[in-house]
Amino acid sequence: MILKNRIIATPTGDDFEEKAMGGAALVIAGHAIVEPGRSSFASPEEPYPFAKYEREETRKKVLKIHRGGAKASVEIFHAGQDARTVDYAKGPSALIRPDGVEVKEMDEEMMEETLRWYAETAASAKKIGFDSIFLHFGHGWLPAQFLSPHYNHRTDIYGGSIENRSRFPLRILETVRKAVGNNYPIDIRISAYEWIEDSISFEDVMYFLKKAEPYIDTVQISSGIDKIFEANVHCITTNLEEEMPNLKWAKQAKAELQIPVSVVSAVMTPAMADEIISKGYVDMVAFGRTLLADPYWPKKAMEGHPEDIVPCLRCSNCYHISSDHWNVGCSVNPRYHHQEFVPSEINLPKAETKKHVVILGGGPAGMKAAITASDRGHKVTIIEKQKELGGMLRFISKEAHKEEVQRLLDYYLTQIFKREIEVLLNTEADPELVKELQPDSLLIAFGAVERILPIPGVEGEKVQLATKAIAHPEQLGQNIVILGGGSIGCEIGLELAENGKNVTILELTDTLAANANSLYREALRQKFLLHENLHSLLKCGCSRIEEDVVIYKNESGEEKQLPYDQLILSTGLVAQRQLVESFYGICRDTVAIGDCVSPSNIMNANFEGYTAALNI
């Protein structure tokens, strides 16, 4: 198989055709369960993709990918002991799961049955037209369960030493190779490290890969475990982690193996990808969330326009586990997960009638609306009271670990500059000014303002709002108290602690960063544990602020005091509804979007800006 470039689209999301059209060389469709009723992590009723009445839908995936100009692969997957079943699951070792399901230790008969299914699934994938197959041997799924001492507690020939633990995974590869023949590409993904106490070692991973080389054509290096939360944040890294976290292992695999090696996770820019390929660290780069944020990332890079790439924020809102399925979406791509009713930015419907669209506010909602309305053919004017566009993005991008937000801000500004969008900076919008502009459509996107709670002493000299603290951290003292443990309060606290400050966060509820998704909270928790100078007090309400101490009540109602050099207010945002209402009645088509309606996040601001502009 010859690929047109070195970009792989991993099996995330179902926008196969768009990823292919966007320029990825190989698009992997996910996931094909191996063993019906016994291998799905989602449901025991999940259909087997190669069953008689499922084949047509599976064939369409192949055709969509080929239609887009890419080679098609499919992820072949077995959840093993974590499978959702109606009776029992099977894995390397026997146990009772926390949900009460029995996991049976696989005997030879069970192994043979699973091997037959692997063979049938692989052969069916080839027969239906996939150009290659992608076997998932990482993230704590069945093959990885045999390889890892965390899961494998056997004392027979399939447990103990890495030689024994490799035995059944190697039998899978041997069986699959026989099923598809010698000239059909087999790729596997493997976790180089599992990020748990009894993880498989990288030395053992390399032992296995060297034994696997005769059966496979390429390997993708990942890390982490899907079903163990503290390890999952290393499968789906947040912005709190370093970029390209798996590169160190991929480089070593590349140096020791004879087959091509790819790496996945947080290769954020074309420059990063070019560097690690040109230096010979890896042969290919696999992109997951990056291509959810912008499926046309490869094409834009190839055409020499990296500034047009919509950057992934690594927020993990696209990952169903993060949100517990409540609000799955992409912070920067409003189409992701909503393809059936949200059009692609590449194929925006042109406006039937050109209108003058006036947008009040240049934050993320306003900028997204402006770009989209302009692309549809409208005349657009943005009124922004500050000296720069950006809104809250300006402040957030100044935090540590927010390189991705800075990239998003740069992207928005570049796109506005490239279009004929009128921008009025240092301009306070009022109804009279708006009337003078005679808009056909008015979008109100003022954003929100920081909440100041009516606490005695809140106007003190040593009290600062979060936005000012972010902008001027050098002005803060050594002992910091942060009032409010939402995501921004936690991020500020972490940054200050990393810079040697003594930080205590006072939070009224029982959860830090309750407004963030669960994976991000776990990533924050792990970072907090690294700093002895960073503390949090939960279920504690501030009673008053004195010159040098904060007086608060704990969960038991006891009054305590906490000394401080600087107190930072991070108690949330308030919508500017009264201001918004003052602009209604000027223009028949008036819509309020973003935080000025209800404070939320970048994802909702971006979605509302995009869809509001679509409706003009």
Description:
The chain is an alpha/beta fold and about 625 residues long. It folds into 3 domains: about 325 residues, Aldolase class I (TIM Barrel); about 140 residues, Rossmann fold (3-Layer(aba) Sandwich); about 110 residues, FAD/NAD(P)-binding domain (3-Layer(bba) Sandwich). The protein is about 35% helix and about 20% strand. The protein is built from 22 helices and 26 strands. The strands form 6 sheets. The chain has an 8-stranded parallel barrel. Strands 14-13-12-15-26 form a 5-stranded parallel sheet. Helix 14 packs parallel to helix 16. The radius of gyration is 27 Å and the shape is globular. The model has no long low-confidence stretch (mean pLDDT about 95).
Helicity range: 25-40%
CATH C-level of the largest domain: Alpha Beta
Give the structural class. alpha/beta
Give the rounded overall mean pLDDT: 96
Widest beta sheet: strand line-up = 1-2-3-7-8-9-10-11
Gyration radius, in Å: 27 Å
**In CATH, what is the homologous superfamily of the largest domain?**
Aldolase class I
Topology-level CATH name of the largest domain = TIM Barrel
Distance between the termini: 46 Å
Count of alpha and pi helical runs: 22
Low-confidence stretches: none
Overall structural domain count: 3
Overall geometry comes to: globular
Largest sheet: 8 strands, parallel, barrel
Beta content:
15-25%
Domain NADH:flavin oxidoreductase/NADH oxidase N-terminal: 17-306
Keywords: Flavoprotein, FMN, Iron, Iron-sulfur, Metal-binding, Oxidoreductase
GO molecular function, one term: FMN binding
Protein name: NAD(P)-binding protein
